Amino acid sequence: MTQAIKPDVTGFFDKATSTVTYVVADPRTSKAAVIDPVLDYDPASGRLSHENLDRVAAFVKEKGLTVEWVLDTHAHADHLTGTAVLREKLKAKSGIGEHITDIQSYWRNVFHMPYVAADGTPYDRLFADGENFAIGELTVKVIHTPGHTAADVTYVAGDTAFVGDTLFMPDYGTARTDFPGGNAHTLYASIRKILALPAETRIFVGHDYLPESRSDVRWESSVAEQRKSNKHIHDGVSENDFVKLREERNATLASPRLLYPSLQVNIRGGHLPEPEENGSIYLKTPIRKAG
Asked: Is residue 202 predicted with pLDDT exceeding 70?
């Protein structure tokens, strides 16, 4: 195996959730991974569909790729993961960072889901910080990058880094840190680990929320660009300055529209909650009592 391989990367943008799904391929073997797939969900009707997943599967077939892995960077709070569906459809293995168990332990109690084992089930592989795995002949290194949540990881493959929600495009900044287990000091340290990668490393972000300064969606930058111009954490921004800015920004943000539906599904790797006694499946919304 060699880290000199430059992977082929194709992004699929989901306009409804501003999420980017990636197909990462080893050009020598045509082996591939899918990172952060999106399961379509309409909260008004409760309808699930596979438009995004079908696009990815069609691309994989067209290019003659063999998908070995379906990966999540973390348990997302803004879209339902398509990992379970795509894993089955493409006969691949699923993976996520090992601290998903912390997320499962917290949210299973919030939603009263005692059948969630909080042991990483149903993912096939839980990656530790610094662990390597392979996509064909391409070596992928996993870096634990918490702060947005306690369980975020970055996948570094050749000259690419898939950072999930930890970093955004330089003109948008960084991830919020006000979810349970999030921490602005921790995020600062995680981002500095990413920005210590070689300057030419390609950075692929998990979302683009399209700031008012531009009209075109983008999801690729570089370590050099992020260090020079990220509006929250470019070189020269101290940890204390970043934490102050990040926490002030957090206070202005509403909860993600799909927060509760997403987490009930995503702590199970994309599997829906267990059916109730009447055979129906429900997504719950915890009620906060007044007063």
From this structure: yes
Question: How far is 165 from 147, CA to CA, in rounded Å?
Answer: 10
Beta bridge partners of 203: 161, 221
Q: Other C-beta atoms within 10 Å of 136: how many? A: 20
Whether 257 maps to a domain, the answer reads yes
What domain range includes position 170? 8-266
User: What secondary structure letter does DSSP report for 74?
Assistant: S
Record the pTM.
0.96
Q: What is the mean pLDDT of residues 22-43?
A: 97
How many distinct structural domains can be found in the chain? Answer: 1
Q: Where are the alpha helices (DSSP H) in 165-258?
A: 184-194, 223-229, 239-250
Does position 2 have pLDDT exceeding 70, yes or no?
no
User: Does 154 reside within a domain?
Assistant: yes
Domain assignment of residue 272, yes or no: no
For residue 55, what is the domain's CATH number?
3.60.15.10
Instruction: Decide if 148 is inside a domain.
Output: yes
Phi-psi region of 86 (alpha: psi -120 to 50; beta: other; left: phi over 0): alpha
123, 74 Cβ separation under 8 angstroms: no
Please report where in the chains the tokens 């500095």 appear, as a residue.
192
- Give the three-state DSSP class for 192: helix
